Amino acid sequence: MSGATLMAYREKDLGIRMSGDFEFAKARITAAGELILTGTVCLPEGGNAVSASFVVVGRKTQIETIFPAEWSEGRQPLEVTGRIPLQALELEGETLANVYFVSDGSDRENRARVVWDPEAVHWLPYPTKFGNLSLKRMES
Amino acid sequence: MSGTDSVARPLLPAMKYFMVLWGIADNFGGMTTMSLHRAGAFGEAGRSATVVTFDPKPSYEATTKRLRVQGKLAEDAKVVNVFQHYRTADAGSVGGPAPVKVPEDEGERGLPGVVLDPAGSIFSRTFLRPDGTTVAARHFYRPDGSEYLRDEAPQTTAGISKGRFLTLVDESGADVAQWRRAGDFYRFWMADLAAGQPAAFIVDSSFASSVVAPLERPNIIKLMVLHNSHISGGGNPFLGKLAAGQRRIHENSLAWDGLVFLTHKQRQDYEARFGTSSNLFTVSNPKPRAAALPDFAYRVPGRGVMVCRLEAQKNVPHAIDVMARVHQERPEVTLDIYGTGSLREELQEKIDLLGLRNVVRLHGHTPNAADQFETARFSLLTSRNEGQPLSLMESLGRGCPPIAYDIRYGPSDVIEDGVNGFLVPAQDVGAAAARTIQMCDDDDLARRMGEAAWERSERFSDEAVVAQWARTIEGAWNQRTDRLVLNDLDFRLSELFYTAAGGFGLAGDVVWSQQSGPPAENVLKANLVVGRRSGGAPAFYPMEIVGKGPGLLSLEAEMTADDIANGVPDDNNELDIFLQIHGNNVLKSVRIGFPGKSPSWKPFATAHAAMSLKLV
């Protein structure tokens, strides 16, 4: 993967048909302040991955920041990793942002929200006011 | 009921024994009493012990004489003091680190405060800074007036410290040894006391613990007795903060060959919250019982006794409330309270207000108050918290069955409910009143319980407790070479992760520098600890060791959603995550910080099943 290149442009068409769904597996936050998303993508038969990226979109401003992803070569499903340096997110005035996975196949760009089923998530890590790691019940 | 160690009597191992106090105050309390008593009990068992003190007090000879007259210090138990020792020692033969020239003190200082010894000779001169509290220098003198020790803390004119210098001076006035920290000076002396022989230092004073903890010699073991609850104010054992006086002890528990709890219950609570290690022991305080069971016929029907300080911790208002309820049904039942304290007037007002002047009687301080248990039908204990209530043990040892709140710590270790007394839920005035009435109504019950109380109190005899000490000391000594001495033990989180299935995990390194013991990387393990905000014991999940080397253990752990939720009550909505490092004598809990800077973006699952980021 190349180094994270930052681009900003207006969101275009969110209704594009996907050629490969990203299946989210793990989100890591490193001590260096990087968010690393990993998962898999199963390309349709004959599909050809040209590029892939994660896009963070501010909810109010719709400003996008694109982070190129890297993926494994060979057998499907492809293992995909995206690195988002959280301190580099320039989302002034925002407190919420959505995360998309974008893949450019041989014919067109495909974009979809990264799926994370809240039914599975009952406890979510958060920092206390003292900066310590705690878990909070999602229903609370 | 726990704590029923047999009274088989292994001899105390052949070694030198020291009981460590910071000092012996003129009006000391239970901790010092126990330390002095233990020294005597060890002597009775054939191993004389020395009481070690560090306070710069010129009058230990007089103190020692007084204690012996009062029967509080055995004839064969010595009391030594670091300043007294070097006051009369041959400084030229002491050895110790070579002295350097002490930098000039450029700071301001006032006139010296002079302390005289009982013979009227100058013991010390103390120079203070203009703030009236900071010591600039303290000079100590032999009985002949020559200086033997200078404790100097020179400053620049701007008030910046140039360090601290404790310099030993010989009779000719020449500097012969020097230490840069008072603790080093004290530890040099302690090692000198041990004289290279096997030695055990049993520390009672938490204040002195910081002096003893860093003492590392192959011939010395160190045991720290925890006289009070490890939780501040006797609070919730799983949520409460560590007691300020004990915080350093527990945060560096690996420094000790033994952390000695007085009760099994306290140790159980400690282990349930923090885990266990090879250096945790339980030894009760001794409390000799009456030589024979006092005759039941001399017990005054309906008379209860309390022996306690009249302070908030003892919760005497509850005892008055208990008696108010009892009085409604059994007006002949009375309670005599022996002891004094800051709440006496307030308590008397409450007694008067309730019309109980002839029912609850405050007797103030009374010599040998514990003898009152020999003529009482019952005793009451309504304290909020205790370490190990001595009055309860005194009551049992005189065949007086107690009615006690089941508080932390002590009652449940010594009372088997319905057998040698009654345990009632803490703060339950009604239950305590009902049991009091039952005890007063039923002669057979009171007699039977009194007999059981006296018989079972044998396990608090000097002989029984010395036997517990013997086992503890032997165990600590035998495992001393396995003790890990580590510095800067810490955890460095490298990453935290969330799984799509609702789990979470983390990875990071435990790091340390090792001073002695077997290679720590082959001994240490770690658990992820999930603490529950609503209370109850935390859950422990073993972490996987994925790499190791000298000074390094790389760890990973992943908890599934089910793991996280396992055993968590529905009303508990927040969990705190710790890392526990353990192995041999090591037991350390580290709060894990959330990675990255704050505020920063954190992932979460939206209601529409999508990932979003939130600035938190």
Automatic annotation (TrEMBL), chain A:
Q: What protein name does the entry list?
A: Uncharacterized protein
Q: Which organism is it from?
A: Arthrobacter crystallopoietes BAB-32
What taxonomic classification does the UniProt entry list for its organism? Answer: Bacteria, Bacillati, Actinomycetota, Actinomycetes, Micrococcales
From TrEMBL, chain B:
Domain named Glycosyl transferase family is located at: 305-453
Classification via InterPro entries? Glyco_trans_1
The record's section on SUPFAM superfamilies has:
UDP-Glycosyltransferase/glycogen phosphorylase
Annotated source species? Arthrobacter crystallopoietes BAB-32
Keyword set for this entry?
A: Transferase
Give the molecular function GO annotations: glycosyltransferase activity
- The domain of life is Bacteria
Instruction: Provide the protein name.
Output: Glycosyl transferase group 1 protein
